[in-house]
Amino acid sequence: MTSRVLSQRQLNRATLARQLLLDRASLSAWNAVEWLGGMQAEQVAAPYIGLWSRISGFQREDLSFAIEERRVVGAQLMRNVVHLVTASDYRLWRRALQPALEGAYRRRCGDMDESTATNVLEAAKAFIAEEPRTLSEIQAHLSRLEPEADPSCLVGTVMTFLALVQVPPAGLWKVFDSPAYALADDWLGLSIASAAEGLRHLVVRYLGALGPATHSDLETWLGMRVSESVFDDLLPGLEKLLNEAGETLYDLPDAPRPDEATPAPPRFIPAGDNLMFSGGPDARFVPEEHRETLARIGGQAGPTFLIDGLIEGTWRIERTGERSTLVIIPFRPLDSVDARELVREGEDLVSFVEDDTEDFEVRLEAAS
Predict the structure, then answer these.
(1) Helix (H, G, I), strand (E, B) or coil at 150
(2) Confidence class of residue 170 from pLDDT cuts 50, 70 and 90?
(3) Residue 323 belongs to what domain range?
(4) Of 96, 113, 153, 241, which sits most exposed with the smallest number of CB within 10 A?
(5) Which tens digit of pLDDT belongs to each residue from 195-217?
(6) Which residues contact 306 (CB under 8 A, 6 or more apart)?
(7) Which residues is 183 bridged to in the sheet?
(8) Per the domain annotation, does 239 fall within a domain?
(9) For the whole model, what pTM was predicted?
(10) Other C-beta atoms within 10 Å of 92: how many?
(11) Is 292 contained in some domain?
C-alpha cells in the first residue's frame, strides 16, 4: 500500500492546528500547557505570551494560579532546558528524559567519581529536603563539602541526577529572582514513573502537539537519541505517511490535519516557542529565502511572527518611561492586508505585556 504524501504546507497547517495557532482555543491554562506538550520557559514571559497567542481571553493570572496550585511546574526537561509542564506529565516524563540530561551534563563535565557523586547527591538531597534552595545556595553548600570540585559541575550533578522542580514565585509573571528548587516527590506528592512508561507517553504527547513527525524530528525535540524503531515498538497503531523528501512520518490516526487552504492568521511567537523546536522547523515554518537571515540573527530562539503560517520577521518591545512600543521588523515588504492585521494583533500584544504603562504604540519598520 502506498503511503500518503503530505506537502510542506499540509504539515505546516497540521502543526499550527495542534499548536492552537489557527484559531484561539477555549481552554484553561493548565489544559493548554498539557495539550501543547509543555512550553519552553527559559524566559519567564515566554509561556505567558505563548498562551496569549493561543487561548481566547487568556489572563496572566490563569497560568500563575496553575503554577501556585502545583498543577503546572517548571523543570529542566526536553533538550535540557526549562519547560513548564503539567505535574502529571512531569511525573511521566522525567525519568524517560534522563539520557538528554545526562548527555548535556557529560558534554560539560565528563564523569564524576562515583563515590564523590554519591556523597554530593546525598548531601544535596538532604539540604533541599529542608526547604527549597536556589542554585547558588546549592553550589555554596556543596562546595564546602567538595572544595576541589568544579562548582558548576557540582550543581550540574544535582540538576541531572535528582528530580527537581521550580517552586513559586519562580515562573510567575515578571518575577526575575533566581528560582528555588524542591524535590519533585515532595513538592508534587507524586512518584516518578518508569522510563519505559514515560517514553511512550512522551511520544504520544509529541505527536498530538507537534506531529506528524519523522524519527529525527522526535530526537530534535527530545534532545536525545532514541531507537529507530521507537514508533513501531511503542505505538504499533500509528499511521505512516511521507513528506515530500520521501521520509516516513508517524502520526496519531485521529490527530487534526486541516486542508492546506485553511487560513492562518498573523500570530506573535515568543522566544524559544515549541514551534521552532518541533523538529525540522526550517522546512515547515521558515521560507527558504529567510533561512539565512533567521540563522544570522539567531531568530530561531528569539521572538518571531507568523504571516500565513510562516515566519516572516521578528519583534521586540521597547519601553521609554510610560510609553511602550512594539517594534515589528519584517523580512520582506508586507502587503497592506497582512500589515494591517499584524499591527492590530500587535496592539493587543503590547497592551497585554505592558499593561502598567500609560501609552502604547506599534511601529512596523521597513523590511530588513
Answers:
(1) coil
(2) very high
(3) 286-364
(4) 113
(5) 999 999 999 999 999 999 999 99
(6) 21, 264, 266, 267, 268, 269, 285, 312
(7) 164
(8) no
(9) 0.95
(10) 22
(11) yes
